[in-house]
Amino acid sequence: MNIQITNLTKRYKTVTAVDNISLTVNSGEIYALLGPNGAGKSSLVRMLVGLTQADEGSIEISDASGHRPQLSPEDFAYLPEDRGLYQDRTIVDNLGFIAELRGLDKSLAQQRIDQWLDYFDLTERKKEPMRQLSKGNQQKVQLIATLIHDPDLVILDEPFSGLDPVNQEHVMNVLTDLKQRGKTVLLSAHQMALVERLADKMLLMSHGRALAQGTLAKIRAKLQPQRVYRIECDAEVARNQWGQHEAIVDVSVVDTDLAHVTVDPYVDVQHLWPELNQHVPMRSFSPLQLGLHELYLNTIEQNNNKSKDVQHESA
Amino acid sequence: MSLLSSKVSKIAWWEFRRFFKWKQELISIGLLVVIMAVSTGWGAISAVFEEQYNGAIYFEQRANPGDYEAPKDITLRDAGSMEVEKWKSQLPETLDVVVIVHPDNTATLRVHKRDDWQSDLTNSLQNYLQTLRVAGLELTDEQRTVLDSKPEVTLDIAQVDVDESATDDEGSSELGMFLGIGISVGVFTGFGLMMMSITAEKQQRVTEQLLTIISPREWMDGKIVGITLHSLKAMVFIGLFFGAIALLAASFSSEGSISFTFDPFVVIASFVFVLLGLLMINAMLAGFSATIDDPNHSSRSSFMLIPLLPIFLSFSVVDSPDGTLAQIMSILPVSSFMMMPARLAQTDVAWWQIGLSLALLVVSLIWMRNVAARLFTMGIQFYGKEPSWKDIWNAIRG
């Protein structure tokens, strides 16, 4: 199932929650929405599943058979950010109810419930009321309720929240399996390390707007245009010597024999290295790539500063 | 959309099971059986624990009175003048009372201390002495007969073709009252469960996921049907309980057993009115409950009691089923589901009144369901805060 979102905008009274967002998610892809709290991720997702209506823009869903006018409950799964199940009912009762509403017959529902509970190690607790489960276990039951009908499109708002690392891996495996089976997965998350491993494409949002989107490499290229190198050398000497060079933007000392050197993006580094090596001998050098976490933090910080500047100017 | 589509029936069954707990139901039935047993056997129980009092009676001017019967918990033996003289100075511990009847048909009770049982004895003695006084008057037999008998008052009923059951006013008004109590139980059950059902779902954050699977209207319809089943269950339960008590009480009473005669039309028509009324009230409660976030901190909960007002008012006219007010209330949809069954059970109701009342009730149910669905759709997505009165009004207007 493919999603095509074009120029989507959602405004509330004084806030533009989603501001002109466009994205495409194809079958067999995992697409991650990233951004701080209040960035507009949940608002975007809620429009996608039909809980709210967009003020502008369009959402088009298509599959192998062509354009779909609207999603039916059997087609997709949605794990909301604000989620819960009936606390006074047992795990099995809750899952059975959701499965029946999703159109599964009783025997198939029971079979799927047993499989999922076994996978998440909850079989022995299936007769317990939800309120007796830990937050993490409740989260697992929520995920089972979401995926019980094996839909083609899976939309998950913060699927990793409340889970320990072991169970985060379990969920990672589930999502990877969905992808391998050609399902479309759209998720929002704050766990950058997991998203970096999992997502094929991503959208970084802030204040409802898209800061960057695409593959991790594409985002990195956009958000990290300056080239940073990891150079093994006498770091203190390098800072003193190279810091004055016109092609060097910054030299930061990481350790006595390790420096991170930021190079002007317009300089040809093939000619620069021999020159630098004459001043301070280099034992090794390699390009340094920031992780998604650092990229995210840097970008959000820059964006917040930019917003403050705009507010100051307008004031 | 059908009221009982596949999803609606699944939600209805879920709602019913959600609040149907076998353990609690059995405990309730057990408690009712105990109450029933205690209430029906209370006479025997109280007889076992009833205290007996011993005393003596002395007539100052009669040699052998012997015809005074004391209350059943007091045993009086005849006393002699010597004993009485002695007891005047010192009442023995073995006696609770000494009754001295004076020549002027007055009496003195000599007791250790004041107690409740003495009032029964005093009343009994007063009645007895009054008959002695009347007997002392020199009256003819005719005068005595006139004095002992009450004047006759004849009831002349103008309507000659009245159903025999309708003339039994006392029994019928009791049936009407009984129906009213049953319907009130059903409505209050719906009130409590609907509020609990919806506010718990909002607090437990179930709403958002369900709203991507089912439409708000399907969800609300399922709730209405499920909670109405609970209302009916509560009514059947209370009916069986009171019925059993009535049967048992009758079997112990001197009047022997009681008999129930059911007119199938009245039973079916009453059921239809009650069912439609409960559906309408529960629809209203569903819509309004959706606007409440936390019943413990919302002032709106009390507004939900307003539709119950006509039900309370119905109690005041239930024993005069042919009165103007009763006829009006049996036609207005806000009270007809209670008043019409009460009237059908007590009197002959004109066909046009039944038809008009039913038609208005059906139309009101459809209207209420639509209004409640709009209110529910708006309110169910509010959690952590409540919609304003303006939001509610806009939703009601559509």
* Cα-to-Cα separation, first versus last residue of chain A: 47 Å
Q: Total number of β-strand segments of chain B?
A: 4
The share of residues in helices of chain B is 55-70%
* Poorly predicted sequence stretches spanning 5 or more consecutive residues of chain B: 162-168
Largest interface: A-B, 24 and 20 residues
Taking Cα atoms only, what radius of gyration of chain A do you get, to the nearest Å? 24 Å
Present the secondary structure layout.
The complex is a heterodimer of chains A (315) and B (398).
Chain A (H helix, E strand, L loop, with lengths): L1 E10 L4 E10 L4 E5 L6 H8 L7 E8 L2 E3 L7 E4 L11 H11 L4 H14 L15 H13 L5 E5 L7 H16 L3 E5 L3 H7 L2 E6 L2 E6 L1 H8 L3 E6 L2 H8 L5 E8 L2 E6 L5 H11 L4 E4 L4 H23 L1
Parallel strand pairs in A: 3-8, 3-9, 6-7, 7-8
Antiparallel strand pairs in A: 1-2, 1-4, 4-5, 9-10, 11-13, 11-14, 12-13
Helix pairs in contact in A: 2-3, 2-4
Chain B lengths: L5 H14 L2 H19 L1 H8 L3 E7 L14 E5 L2 H9 L7 E5 L5 E5 L5 H20 L4 H8 L20 H35 L3 H5 L4 H37 L11 H26 L19 H9 L6 H6 L3 H14 L4 H29 L9 H9 L1
Parallel strand pairs in B: 1-2, 1-3
Antiparallel strand pairs in B: 3-4
Helix pairs in contact in B: 1-9, 2-9, 7-9, 7-10, 7-13, 9-10, 9-14, 10-13, 10-14, 13-14, 14-15
What does this structure look like?
The complex is a heterodimer of chains A (315) and B (398). By secondary structure, chain A is an alpha/beta fold. Chain A is 38% helix and 27% strand. Chain A has helices at residues 41-48, 91-101, 106-119, 135-147, 165-180, 192-198, 216-223, 235-242, 269-279, 292-314; strands spanning 2-11, 16-25, 30-34, 56-63, 66-68, 76-79, 153-157, 184-188, 201-206, 209-214, 227-232, 248-255, 258-263, 284-287. In chain A, the strands form three sheets. Chain A has a six-stranded mixed beta sheet with strand order 6-7-8-3-9-10, with helices on both faces. Chain A has a four-stranded antiparallel beta sheet with strand order 2-1-4-5, with helices on one face. In chain A, strands 12-13-11-14 form a four-stranded antiparallel beta sheet, covered by helices on one side. The radius of gyration of chain A is 24 Å and the shape is elongated. Chain B is mainly alpha-helical. In chain B, strands 2-1-3-4 form a four-stranded mixed beta sheet, with helices on both faces. The relative contact order of chain B is 0.10. Chain B is elongated and about 100 Å long.
